[in-house]
UniProtKB/TrEMBL annotation:
Organism the protein comes from: Streptomyces kaempferi
Superkingdom: Bacteria
Sequence ranges assigned to domain Aldehyde dehydrogenase in this UniProt record: 21-492
Protein known as: aldehyde dehydrogenase (NAD(+))
Enzyme Commission number: 1.2.1.3
Amino acid sequence: MTGPTALNSVIDGKEVPGSGVTYASRNPARLSDVVAEVGLADAGQLRDACAAARRAQREWARVPAPVRGQVVGAFGRLVEANKESLARLVTREVGKPYAEALGEVQEIIDTCDFFLGEGRRLYGQTVPSEMADKQLFTYRMPVGVAVIVTAGNFPVAVPAWYLAPALLCGNAVVWKPAEYAAATARALAELAWRAGVPAGVLNLVYADGETTFEGLGTALEDGLVDKVGFTGSTLVGRRIGELCGRHLQTPCLELGGKNPMVIAPDADLDLAVEAALFSGYGTAGQRCTSLGTVIAHEEVHDEFLRRFTEAVRDAPVGDPASSAVVYGPLLDEKFAHSYETALSWIDAHHTVLGSSAVGRITAESPRAGFVGDPSDGLYYHPVLVDGVRPTDKIFLEETFGPLIGVTTYRTLDEAIELANAPGYGLSAAVWTRDPATAFRFRQGIGAGMVSVNNSTSGAEAHLPFGGNGKSGNGSRQSGVWVLDQFTRWQSVNWDFSGTLQKAQMDVTTVESDLDYRLPAAWIDEA
């Protein structure tokens, strides 16, 4: 195997050496495999990238929207042509099982296919005026420069959710990916540039979190940023929201989740178990939509738990290159440390199920049926915790790892109250054969996305994605809804009357006789 790739930020089409600080992006399944040595930018370089984007944006906005759509479509075709290679890189750099990585790359293709068409549908409207000889119009205008900050658990799909619509709408972008997904980010950016995205219109900046925050603050102060998109933790999302609020900007925030799955008495338990396994343990529980807590009706709790425990014990864990595993390693050592903190929330009143141990999988703490060699990877036992209470930290907080809590309910209202209690509002699922239960659950739940007889995880390119409460600020990604994040409405009124007509004053009126009533003789019987 060749040595690690050396990567630097790309600003205005040119590689820019970093500040001197280097980050080693490692394969979490084999930490000795350094995928890339990443030169991290300083705050000034991030600000410079925003200035380059400002210079490039106006010319890009002049490109007709259908042509910009063709560029986005070409981006999708290039991703499709490199699908297996990109998926293998995702697997190597962030440890996502290869089958999942292929699905993630397909999401980019689907997104680009959708926005190719939207280049011909960036519709405005003609609006009737209250005055004669006057026409009213509305237009979608690009916001300008967008700074996009993404996590690495979906290192290519989530960035594409931002990049495709932002570029289509005529914006320039500064993209700051997760350092631990740096090589994957560079690969995706290369495909975008080869598709025809001009230098300066897409800038790639590698930086750590605090540097990014400092540089973003400076760029906002200097009037170089018009929109911020952030996918990551609720804690950081709050800071970004506060920063943008000082500049009267509303960011697009896609944050964490504590996603519930309610199991009704009439649920198909075998399918519910399958969905819970995928929702909670897929990607090692490191999705924002990962299942957090199963809320099972007391009539089916014991049987569901028995079947689910068996499924978790039998689930293959290990080498993400294998097609058999449910999940591979945690993304990065920092997430392993935070997950171990979450494991400390397991209390004496909890019953722990699902594996032979809790914590990291090692030779001293083995997992039956492990696929591969765990010695050099960030592999953790799946944990199933029964007896969770609404006051438990493990019930209230996102754990971001292969851990699922289980609790019970008696009435649907109680289940909805439990599901809403943590204050997140990203995704929720209910398993039932009763339409009334499904609709009442949908009506009462605070989540932005609801599944009936499906998992808490899953997105489609033409459906709005996003959360409420601690999961986001109500912004939505995907589909036509994301266009509202990357355009602003402009209204135009065109008066061709030859006089100055003043709204609400020179309005055409029609006299009405509002005192008229139908004659009684028409209504009363003869």
